[in-house]
Design brief:
The protein contains 1 helix and 8 strands; from the N terminus they run ββββββββα. With about 130 residues, it is an alpha+beta fold. The chain has a 4-stranded antiparallel sheet, with no helix packed on it. It has a 4-stranded mixed sheet with strand order 3-6-2-8, with no helix packed on it. It starts with a strand and ends with a helix.
């Protein structure tokens, strides 16, 4: 197996490299952020991925990317000149966010919505009583 170093935009989600055939095995990595260039309203984030991949064709999936990626801006390049045949972006729907801070905010929003509904109902009852008098 030859070790390859791949550098690309953080928006990179899935690489198809002419490096190995894994069969049904799925290779995933998060890589390491090595550079960030900030522009107005966006940023170019570079991740370095060191992967020991056997010869042939490989699909390498980069995970834990930000939610607001511009898929058309993704690219990848191998540091040793190995050709990158394609870069694809795909999303997987998530039923519920697993991050603790998001779950806490969801709970807080539910409590606020419930409190608002209870207060609204109470006010409507008071108005109904005043109208009946």
């Amino acid at each position: 197996m030859k070790k390859h170093s791949i550098t690309g935009l953080v928006a990179l989600f899935c690489l198809t490299l002419p490096l190995s055939a894994f069969g049904d095995e799925e290779r995933t990595t998060t890589g390491t952020i090595t550079r960030v260039v900030v522009y107005r309203g966006q940023a170019l984030v570079t991740r370095k991925i060191d992967a020991a991949l056997p010869p042939d064709s490989t699909e390498l999936i980069v995970t834990d990317l930000p939610a607001n990626i511009i898929p058309e801006s993704m690219y990848a390049q191998a540091s040793d000149g190995t050709p990158v045949l394609s870069v694809r972006y795909r999303e997987q729907a998530v039923k519920e966010d697993t991050r603790d801070e998001v779950r806490k905010l969801d709970r807080d929003a539910t409590v606020v919505t419930y409190s608002f509904t209870m207060e609204y109902d109470r006010n409507m009852q008071i108005q109904a009583r005043r109208s009946a008098q």
